[in-house]
Amino acid sequence: MRLNSKELANTSQWEKAGVELPRFDREAMIQITKTVPEWVHFGAGNIFRAFLTALQQDLLDQGIEKTGIIVAAGYDGEIVDRVYRPHDNLTMAVTLKVNGSIQKRVLASVAEALRMDKAEDFERLKTVFRAKSLRMASLTITEKGYNLTGRGDETLPDVAADFLAGPKSPKNYIGKLTSLCYERYLAGKLPVALVSMDNCSHNGDRLFKAVEAFAIQWTEKGFTEHGFLDYIRDPAQVSFPWTMIDKITPRPDEGVKNMLEAVGLTDMAGELTSKNTLVTPYVNAEEAQYLVIEDKFPAGRPRLEKAGVFFTDRETVDKVEKMKVCTCLNPLHTALAVFGCLLGYTKISDEMKNPDLVKLVEGIGYTEGLPVVVNPGILSPKQFIDEVLQVRFPNPFMPDTPQRIATDTSQKIPIRFGETIKAYLAGTALDVHNLKLIPLVLAAWIRYLLGVDDRGAAFTVSPDPLYDSLHRSLSGLKLGQKGPFHEVLKPILSDSRIFAVNLYEAGLGEQVERCFEELIAGPGAVASTLRRYLA
To answer: Cys-Cys crosslink for 483: which of 108, 157, 336, 517, Cβ 3.0 to 4.6 Å?
Structure first.
């Protein structure tokens, strides 16, 4: 039993395997979408495949919408060649529920998959952006996808090259998106919503600033008409809604593959792309999911509220985003990721069996984070943390790893911890010196960057755009070395681009230094230090 359009026609074999099939006319959907596209998505990874395609399929199954999604892969175009096209743009979605039950569903709402690095596919995207029917272009390209500068504020090489070359053949991800927006401008200043669905604070603004930077450069250099910059800046023509997205989609699990093969599916094995992306015909994810979007769509939008999406105002999105990203989930995830790697764990759910790690995330969430959270109204912060710590993280059927969560931590720390620190500094009834566990996690992250676990064994640090420079700064440090480490740590801890604040000016720099001294004292120091801080 193979995952492709032809095999879907034999419905009995899928029913026997317990797999849910799409209930709409897929061929009609594909033709309508190609003719009158309404939704294009940038970022062909697992969060898109497991979450967004399922939302649109819900609407298609109910007959609420007629069109599907056109997806474009930018960072790693091999995903399209290795997993989308061989399986006719179908995905086998496996939902791992906390009660042990498993839902298997074929997701078929992708009408077309394109590679942004292929000239013919990019031309097709230009056609899509010139279509009057297009309503929204969404993105899941990770936090670092919006960066136009490096750590030293220098313009990234591909961005600098695109600034000088203009919109014809850009190399940078945002440059390509801006070029497509220019096509839409030339087609009659057609309205569209550009919707970032990445875990970035105020992600809509971050996307706007990146697109605007290209529009400014190209307008000043005469590559685009002067009206293009006004078009990008006019929310009645191009909007940049804020969003909050939440669904844990771990790396594809070998056990899930074996389970699918046991019920008769073939060709489920994954492969690594040249950029080290593991691609598989299936995705595995948790059941819990949230998507909150600022309702700002100048060309209209899919009726995703019928699939459980919250549409609201910007203020509410901001509250929900801060609740989740700054307090109720993401900081707890990062804390488990850093300590999990140092303590030799390979599953988040196993970490939740360690009483010390449970106390750590409870303390960060309930004690240090919750006091600065503003209740958004549509979701309860306390209940959200309860679900995270009692249901989501302990789910033994979720094969999520601290190693995956530790990826790009330098890009996440400003939001996941820096915003809470800033809230303490701004609050009249709060004392930043009462923070004990957040500084401990920040010190543990620096300890993690040494690539040596609590037993003294080397491990591979997860990819991070700042790893090379940070690792060089720490290269002289060894496990068992005695402090003080002020001269080594000061350039890092004072960098507000990493922590959102200068930790010394915030009154926490020396505290992080002391934590680091304890964590590096020798084998077993991570576990013993953690226990002391929780006492």
So the answer is: 517
Q: 329 and 469 share a domain?
A: yes
- What residues in the chain have per-residue pLDDT under 70? none
Range 59-62, long-range pairs (CB < 8 A, 24+ positions): 59/302, 59/303, 59/304, 59/306, 59/307, 60/22, 60/23, 60/24, 60/29, 60/109, 61/22, 61/23, 61/24, 62/306
What are the structure tokens assigned to 391, written together?
Answer: 């249901």
Contact 372, 424 (CB under 8 A): yes
pLDDT in tens, 124-175: 999 999 999 999 999 999 888 999 998 778 999 999 999 999 999 999 999 9
Of 265, 281, 311, which marks where a domain is finished? 311
DSSP 241: -
Other beta carbons within 10 angstroms of residue 528's beta carbon come to: 15
Do residues 381 and 320 make contact, with C-beta atoms less than 8 angstroms apart? no
CA distance linking residue 122 with residue 277, whole number of Å = 22
Provide CB contacts within 8 A for 171, sequence distance 6+.
158, 161, 162
Q: Count of residues for the chain?
A: 535
Q: How many domains does the chain have?
A: 2
> What's the rounded Cα separation, in Å, for the pair 448 and 516?
10
Give the C-alpha separation, 117 to 113, whole Å: 12
**Which spans in 237-354 are helix H?**
254-262, 314-323, 330-342, 348-351
* Region of residue 18 (phi > 0: left; psi between -120 and 50: alpha; otherwise: beta): left
- Do 258 and 390 share a domain, yes or no? no
- Domain housing 73: 5-311
> Can you say whether the dihedral through the CA atoms of 319, 322, 324, 327 is positive or negative?
negative
* 381 CB-near residues (< 8 Å, 6+ apart): 323, 327, 328, 370, 373, 375
> For tokens 């942004």, what's the residue?
116
Domain boundary among 277, 293, 311: 311
Whole-prediction pTM value? 0.84
